[in-house]
Amino acid sequence: MTFKNNQCPVCGRTFTDDDDIVVCPECGTPHHRDCWQQLGHCANRARHGDYQWENTAPAEEDGENRSRTDDDKKKGRRVADLFFEENDAEYNARMGNWTCRTCGRENPPEAEFCENCGASRPFASRFRMAAGVVDPDAVPPNILIDGIPAEEEAQYIGPGATRYLFKFLDMEKRDSRLSWNWGAALLGPLWCFYRKLYSVGFLYLVATVVVSLICLPSGLVRHMADGYREVLRAAQSQDLDAVNEATRKMVEGVSEDMLTRSLWQEILSNAFSIGGTVLFGIFGNYLYKRKIKKSILTIRTQASDMQTYLYLLARKGRVNFILPAIFAFFYLYTMVAGFMPT
Q: Whole-prediction pTM value?
């Protein structure tokens, strides 16, 4: 049996005729030997029981009608390449079908129950009911993203899964890490905490604190603040000569070094703010996509059955409302406190 053009469930790379492949004796899932040894067991261990791996690779054609070019194979293109082919409707329809585990009947993607025996759709239905966000007509549940079925990623993502799945598929189609995310761009660390990208969010906060310390009020700001206080005191005494004298001292006390330092602090602060917004907007989806793959592969090593696997996907994935809310509260509190009179 050939496994050519299928994907390794661990690394997501496409199998070739030259690969050293290990097949799970339980379900028949093929792996690269190195990937099997790295993981220590079958990537689909949590699905063992009534699950059997099936060859879903499209048949190769000769000449100009080949669905993949040699360059695509070398780059390890994913199934997403075929998903976006406008003229490959037959393949897309086949990817969306599901097989009944009771009678073996192949059913269309829109069927929630087997058309032959009436058994409920087993795996994808549970994902859609749990995540509540995946439209099987839009994103075939068994299409692979980084070697992981879309339905599993949807269970991990939770709210907004369809939007993210299309973003990830488009990134794989373009073989690119670039993809715009407005939430990441505008909310920065809040978005990171919401999507449980804790390490990225805390690194961003650390960088913000460092830049803030560098850009603490300079000598110019302190000098002008002290000067304004003297002018106000003079004004309260209704002594015009004292007001003029305080104003003259404030203006004459401004040095060129003060102006230069204040200018560079302003440039650094604005550059960090704008640069952080742009970078998070461009690479937010890539960071999230990479975290999802890493987390799911780790969960597969921890789950011993399907029920535990589904639970861990939802438990370790989904979103966190509490941490962003706490962060937003303290941020708004400090902003308001800064404007309150002392």
A: 0.56
